[in-house]
Amino acid sequence: MSKYHPGFFQSIEGMSRRRAIHVSIGAFFALYLVGCATGPTDEREGHLFYPPLPNPPRIQYLATFSNEIDVKGELGGLGKFVLGGEENMSSVDKPYGTALFDGKIHVVDARGAGYAIFDLKAKEFRFIKGSGGGYLQKPINMDIDSEGNKYVTDTIRQQVVVFDRNDEYIRAFGVKGQFKPSDVAVDDDRLYVANLLNSDIHVLDKQTGEALFQFPPKGDAAGPEHLAHPTNLALRDGYLYVADSTASKVVKFTTSGEYVATIGRMGTNVGEFARPKGVAVDKAGNIYVVDAAFENVQIFTEEGKLLLYFGGPGPARENINLPTTVVVDYDNVEYFQQYAAPDFKIEYVILVASQFGLSKVNAFGFGKIEGMDYSSAVPN
Fold it and tell me: 335 and which of 120, 250, 359, 377 could share a cystine (Cβ 3.0–4.6 Å)?
């Protein structure tokens, strides 16, 4: 018997049955796609991979981060006595945005009105609510710059609130009526803000908050560059990717605001979306999109061809339920390798946040099993 949990095939119909979304099953198996395990997994039996063995696996479920036990480890008898059991543990309630920096998973909690920090180095958990000028009311998303400064979008304040690497309040960008920010992406000297008020992108000076320009221009609502409800952003190699949950697509722009391409469309077939939310891009240009209706992550090539998908709803720790955000990270692999199978070497980490279910933030690793032939596997 293999030491790896095999997983099993499942269509988008199965992943979305609670919403009565139907799909052509035949189209799925005409392509090299692997479904998602949604049944309970006994973690003592092995590891969960996508695609499942005997296919050469590329993605492994690693761990879940929902409360302080997930980073501190099991509490001893005295800890349980003092704190009164797991139900009294500090935890994330309704996560949305997620970011990784310096061995720390940051999770924006819309209901908790702050952000949680799972410190993988110190094995600590803490929660930042902010105070004074940094008081948060309904934080949604976050991005972190190379210096460790956090940029948090708050839809009630209608501002981007900035904290330093020590979680001290620095400043806030935006005034009432300027925008209703759902997400922010940080470039070297600019901030890109997804605006729900006018369904566009605002570009600000990173240091001063000065408004530089907006895009796309108002025009034909049916145009491919048109945005109906931009919710999430991703920056990579001079391009900005915008997930539009109402128009059910991801739009690719240059960082100067020029339209480049559209990935996906509304529908229930392969490569289509029902309610896309988070978007991320790896170094190869592959695009990762979480769908809050399908409750999975779809991976597309740079040209928009669907490679595979993983995830799916359910009661197990590896499941994702009402997902909101996906993050691709190369800088913190060392903190996650401990969760991988002994011969599975992680190239980068994928984080997925969910607003419902047992697991709030799931970590997956993208990599290879040493010594296995990947010549016919899903490409990088």
Answer: 120
* Alpha helices, DSSP H, located in the chain: 12-15, 25-29, 69-72, 77-83
Residues in the chain: 380
Domain that holds residue 364: 12-71+88-369
| Nearest by Cα to 276 from 380, 182, 143, 159 | 182
Domain count, the chain: 1
**CA distance to 22, 34, 80, 278, 279, per residue, from 270 (Å):** 11, 12, 47, 18, 17
| Sole residue written with tokens 């529908």 | 267
Residue 286 and residue 307 in contact, taking contact as beta carbons nearer than 8 Å: yes
Q: Name which of 75, 47, 80, 81 is nearest 61 in CA terms.
A: 47
DSSP letter assigned to residue 294: T
Q: Whole-model pTM?
A: 0.86
* Within a domain: 237: yes
**What are the pLDDT digits (tens) for 318-353?**
999 999 999 999 999 999 999 999 999 999 999 999
How far is 357 from 69, CA to CA, in rounded Å? Answer: 17
Rounded Cα–Cα distance for residues 152 and 292 (Å): 21
Per DSSP, the three-state class of 29 is helix
First-to-last C-alpha distance (Å) of the chain: 29
Per-residue HEC secondary structure of 151-206 comes to: EEEECCCCEEEEECCCCCEEEEECCCCCCCEEEEEECCCEEEEEECCCCEEEEEEC
Residue with tokens 């410190």: 119
Instruction: Look up the CATH number of the domain holding residue 66.
Output: 2.120.10.30
Residue 189 counted as domain residue: yes
Q: Which of 378, 261, 250, 254 is nearest to 326 (CA)?
A: 250
Buried b (16+ CB within 10 A) or exposed e, 163-192: beeebebebbbbeeebbbbbbbbbeeebbb
Q: Is residue 281 part of a domain?
A: yes
Q: Residues near 197 by Cβ (< 8 Å), separated by ≥ 6?
A: 177, 179, 180
Kindly report, residue by residue over 120-176, the tens digit of the pLDDT. 999 999 999 989 999 999 999 999 999 999 999 999 999 999 999 999 999 999 998
